[in-house]
Amino acid sequence: MIHSEKNRLEWNEESRLRELLMHHYGIQVREARKIKRILHLKTDNGDYVLKRSGFHGEQRWKLVQELAEYLQNRGGYQIPAPVLTHRGKLHFSGFQCRYVLLPWVNGKLRDWNRERCWPKVAQTLARFHSDSKGFLPSRSFLQHFSRRGGWRKNWEKAAREIQVFKMAVDMSGEISVMDRFWFKHLPYMEGMVETSLHYLEKAGGDQVVQETRKEGEVCHLNIHRNNVIWDSREEVHFIDWNRVALDVRSRDLSKLILYAYRQTGRPDMACHLLKWYQEVSPLEEEEYELIYAQLLFPSGMMRSLKRVYMDGKASPDLNEKDGWNSVDQEEKKYGLLREFPEQVEQLFQKKIRRIDWIQSQK
């Protein structure tokens, strides 16, 4: 809820935002408008976005700042960098949480299906990956945000987390509705994690992942309709960089492919996206199997499981809805998993490994 009056601005139960923004940035807020999880501020010094700093906030936004500076120095694709406070900080503390201020990107959202936006999105992602080649962040970011060459380690960690959860439920004296829900779907998650690991190893393992780093190793990981702005020149701007990670581009591509499949219901969109992407930046042969390995991994279900039992901040109703959505999305992606290898072979003449039990699914 937002309350904005001449001398009062309240958002997220922060009753002194106007004063905090003046103190830290020297800007006078003239108008404020809530848009989903952000606040659009019109000030005496232009337009800005205010948002919560988030998990690992200071470290992640420092990474975004370094990436923005790197891209600016190269003169290529540009991303919005956090606005520094008077003291040179990337964020400031309110009474409820920490916040980060970002430049407002002028433009509009579009209906990607009606306006045929998918080609431009894929090409812009390719441009970003290409322009961010060679980015070397501070070493302090590697612990939290780097997955480069460490897929196996992280997927094995996911398998252990599933086992820990099963043991916790078995030992619990009182089993909740959510416990039963997840316990029912854990065998599927275990199977898909194991399948992902086996496929990755057959594709060459983390060594192959490492070898593809030269093609780009920074990922946005959250590209969807509400995070893409189209400006007056028809240029595409990716916003909301709070999930940025240091990883190879095949992971970013798999996320975009899954999103496209969920939005269109068309398995062939995967190869269309890869075709448009390669009009800017060609893929190496081994990257097709890395993309498929990422498609196999049940990342949505793992993320939902962690939200419930590790974060524990959402309400039970939201947790249940999130859980059902993640399960539904996993079940629906069988069509994509079944058809992707054949379509890659037909369109790109690249033969990738198939998984027999997935090919037999109807």
Automatic annotation (TrEMBL):
Residues covered by the Aminoglycoside phosphotransferase domain: 40-278
Cellular component annotations (GO), alphabetically ordered: endospore-forming forespore
Recorded superkingdom: Bacteria
Keywords (A to Z) from UniProt: Transferase
Molecular function in Gene Ontology: transferase activity
PANTHER family: ENDOSPORE COAT-ASSOCIATED PROTEIN YUTH (PTHR39179:SF2), SPORE COAT PROTEIN I (PTHR39179)
The protein's name in its UniProt record: Phosphotransferase
Organism whose genome encodes this protein: Kroppenstedtia pulmonis
